[in-house]
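Lecture 7, part B: from sequences to assemblies.

Below are the input chains for today's worked example.
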Amino acid sequence: MDMNNEITSDELQESQAGEIKRLTLELKKTKRKLLSLEETLARNKDTFSARQTLLKAAEGEKQRLESAMRSILTNCPDIILIFDKSGLMAFCTDTFVNVCGISASGLIRKTPYNELLTGRVSGEITDVLYQIFSGTSTLKQTVEYNEKVDFSGFTPRSYSIQITPLFDSNNKPDGAMMFFYDSTDLNNAKQTAERANESKSSFLATVSHEIRTPMNAVIGQLAILRATGLDDNQMKLVKGIEKSSNNLLSLINDILDFSKIDAGKLDIVNDWFDLRQTVEQLRSMLTPMFTEKGLEFDIVLPEVFPPCISGDEKRLSQILTNILSNALKYTEKGRVVFEITESSRNGDCIEYEFKITDSGIGIKESDLPRLFMSFEQLDLVKNKKVTGTGLGLVITKNLCKLMGGDIAVESVYGEGSVFTISLPFKAGTIENIGTETEKAPAFKAPDAVCLIVDDISVNLEIAEFMIGSTFDIKCDTASGGHKALDMAELKKYDIIFMDHMMPEIDGIETVRKLRKGNSVNKNTPVVALTANAISGVKEMFYENGFNGFLSKPMEISKLAKVILALLPKEKILQ
Amino acid sequence: MIKMLTAHTYELDDIDLAIEEIKSQIDSSKFLKNSVGMVSCHADFITEGITDALCEAFDFPIFGQTCKAAADKNVISSEVLILTVLTSDDAEFNIAVTEPANSDMAENLQVLYKDTGAKTELPIKLVYIGLPLLVNVGGDFFVNTLNAVLDGAPLFGGVAVDHTADYRSSQLFYGKSHFSDRAIIMVISGNLNPKFFTADLGGREVYRDKAVVTEARGNKIITVNGMKATDFLEMIGIKRNEDGGFIGLNMCNLMVDYGDGSKPVVRAVFAETPDGEIITGGEIPQGAMITISYIETDDIEKADRKMAEQIKASGDFDLMLCCSCIGRYFNLAYDAEQEMKFITDEFGDEKDFVFSYVGGEICPVETLDGKLVNRCHNQTFITCLI
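Predicted structure of the full complex, as structure tokens:
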């Protein structure tokens, strides 16, 4: 200020500058604040918009779910009941309302579960529901019951009933759902199918028996005819009939095996056997055939074999015979090599690989997928001369699978094929197989007397011939169980051969009566004869008083072993 | 025992005034043997030099990070700087800053922790962590990396965010050094027994049907149900504005079901990339099932109340360190300060606390057998009581 107390221009300027600075700062702060507010508004606007989008989407989803729920409740053909956590009915399908003859679902809304269900379902089900709604249940998953329920009061129907406890998003109990599926028609269809299956099984067993029996009779009588001293021409004819009969039997066996596989009825019968012996039998059977065709046939074996292995020897032979026969059929020159190797071993579990390599016509790559299909024969033009039903390989593959293994093939068309069969077995010890593997020594038993029982006369003829001519054993015959029991009362036999399937009284019943009775043959050894070896049948015979078991057609070597084992030692002449 | 002193300022233009305001609120006679300063602030406080001046004004180390909003018993604001001083005679505070994020980050972080921990002979009771907001790496990475070397020590802290739409100004500082690609760890050792509480949100499903994360990398979702992640968001109805960005992307939460029987967790969606990927607040493995969820304000209030009751029932304590997820702030919309007001009302009269909004919350949770396991959370309010 000057001497007159007036503000000087410097002071004014300074004051103005200060004010400008203050205002500038204030403006800066205000702008900053405005910017912040604008950002907040913009952000809130975005937030609101995004929120509205999500809420709209959520509402849309809710309506979609409600619509779907409504549709299910109206249209579902099954009974669904949904109870809230207090056990009161919240929702049900219209089917339930209709089946119960209720006018409207509203009438039963909030009805307690026990009022709706007691008397209709079992106490077990209402107990489960009680536990769920009282909070004492530990059930977390669906439980299922099968019961007859009468909703209408007229006709009970079979239902598969599922009870599912419900939980909310916090995993707290939130009620229960019951689902009733009317299984009446399904059960009826199942029973019909089961009956049909039983009929099929019964048919298979009958056909098997009815076809094989006369075939075995033909083959057996041919064997008898052979021994009657035929000239060369007659022998040639007999051999021809034998060959055709064996082919027919093989064909029939294939068809029956295929039917059994299709019906799931083919059994694998495991027993201890010597693999080396099995291979030697194949060698004996097949080598002449290969030689006749001018083919080399080599068998390569592992250095070490266990004393025995557990498996189905018959089916293994069938598999190997089939593949080797095919190799023989489809190879015109060169060689076939049959190699066995131990592919893996784990304790007493042993897996063998059977590899058959031929220099035959091979298989086209495009045909490989059809190789194991039924009734398929490949390259029909080239293989016009080759006979067969086309079932061999499909049976072989199925047998491999049933035995826990598999078959694979590699082939080059025009050069040859390699079939590799892998099968698991259990290795055994000498104790498992005992002396069974040893070939029975030749013997006669002229002082021994046996009784042969079979309802089919030709079978009696064949058995009598085999036993009498091979072992000099005197044979009596009986055409049925009753006759056998009568004869057993009158004469002491050293051994009895008993057929299984006979009319009036079967072999098992006959033996049961024999053992219970007091005849001189009460304890005579009895050998079961059966045409159909299935799993467990051997054990069944032993449990019912039999001492031995032979499958038809009888093999001389097996017959010899059984007789040696059961005849009194003093009657054997070696 | 640790004491807490807090001070705040709104002053951005006059550095001296700002420092003066802070100093006037803090009684330096209450400083004990060891002290440290922690700052939660608007990004402008760093760019305008206020934090640099703050570091010069006090003798103890000061570090901090940007946040969306912060509070103490005296202030609630999104435009404030709050200085929290922790001071103690029987606890030590050792601070370290990591190297910039690179491929060796994991090893560097572990070595840094071990070296920092080696500076104290007292037992380590708490590790406070401030994390940068990185596109390719989320909080899970840091938690998992440190869990391997923490030897059971609890980890607490959060990921820095800021006021911008894309968090481009989010940063941390230690002293006069500012960075957006480094983390800060503070090892607190000595006489303290921290307790931890979380208020997480389940989220409400928008859709019943779940989608499958068909391609993912870390916290980045690349494809969902075989389509680009952003295409999936558009398909479910999230709209784009005139500039092409998603409107309210931060409102979008994912309920992630890992398919291993554990409870589904919420993961916030932070941003989209030009390649059509979306960045989330945590690791989402390929094969995880996701559904879109939203949050109601009632859910936030309910969760906070429940946590407050648990805190009150837990016994006595001296101070509270609080972080909440920025997603909750946005979900609260025009009542954005609700949580901060709630904490002030519940505890402000008797307890010292500091609260900030972060973008990924690091806090241990208790397992069924009573052990503490460090986790990275989303949409969660976390509290550490000392």
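Note for the exam: The first strand of chain B starts at residue 2 and ends at 9. Keep this in mind when comparing with the next example.
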